[in-house]
């Protein structure tokens, strides 16, 4: 379950062409289980109608500072008190100036002045407005007060020109919200290394030995660790999945590259989660030119050598090591052997055929001191959260 589940998100939408992207942000937050209270400025309504946000959030949209108070809701006071985080996306130069100088002349700025919740600002404006000294000073003022800025990005702007000022991508804003909400979580101050995806062992410049791992599980584990407050390093083999934007990412291709990157990363880490599907073998010789059928360099066979067992070879007493066992036969027996041979604190075992490449997983958890526990089928995101919860318990005991 994501850190967003059950959280009250106050989403301020201001008047810019990027306001339409706030609809997607609201939708994604709701799908993640958050309660979203949208606050619109009058200029924002020129770009997106309140009915859109009301349909997406199933909640009334806050538009006027003087809105009717009830026994359970005191307008901006209740919004300010109940919000776990205030997100302003898009944030115009005008609204950023108001926030910096404490001006409270609409529902959004009044709520911002009254809340003690963390403030996340996603700017969107023209290049010249963004770089104006007044705007930059306002950024500095808000940053010193603890506001978290996400973006802006560079690219094509509403004017048709290219420059700085594009609203950050919705996944980037979501990652930032998750990081801010999770920063005081049970893994706060802990360094976690996650490996993900499969490795590719070169035969020649265009061919390789590999496996079907998509990296989905490892990426989900990285996000779950961030949700718990950890400082995460993600080491990933080739994949088409976008990694969390709030983590350090190290891209590798082969098992030997993974070994070097992992050894460097765990030197000051608390936890290693080895979710990567590492090739057991690699070609003894990698050809520098493409092998052509019928050519002089066409081999009649390919000799293989064994890759190092990375997880077993990493020996650090303070490091909590978590492994994975994707098996086609004798799931529990093979997983238990790996648990012991690699000196792991926990291993996650699952059927290789049913898990690799699929969005859901059925996993069995093994630890040295307990009987195997088979979990119900769940999404890999939910399984990642469950695994991280168990890692927290391992660290605390």
Task: Give an account of the 3D structure.
The strands form six sheets. An eight-stranded mixed sheet has the order 12-11-8-13-16-17-19-20, sandwiched between helices. 34% of the residues lie in helices and 22% in strands. The protein folds into two domains: 8-181, 3-Layer(aba) Sandwich (Rossmann fold), CATH 3.40.50; 185-396, CoaB-like (Rossmann fold), CATH 3.40.50.10300. It has 14 helices and 21 strands. The protein is globular. Helix 1 runs parallel beside helix 2 (50-57). It has 397 residues and is an alpha/beta fold.
Describe what is shown at a glance.
The chain is an alpha/beta fold and 397 residues long. It has helices at residues 21-31, 50-57, 75-82, 93-101, 107-114, 127-131, 133-144, 170-182, 216-227, 255-265, 310-313, 331-341, 352-355, 380-396, and strands at residues 8-13, 35-40, 85-91, 119-123, 148-149, 153-156, 162-166, 191-196, 201-202, 208-209, 231-236, 248-251, 271-274, 281-283, 304-306, 320-327, 346-351, 360-361, 363-366, 373-374, 378-379. The protein folds into two domains: 8-181, Flavin prenyltransferase-like (Rossmann fold), CATH 3.40.50; 185-396, Rossmann fold (3-Layer(aba) Sandwich), CATH 3.40.50.
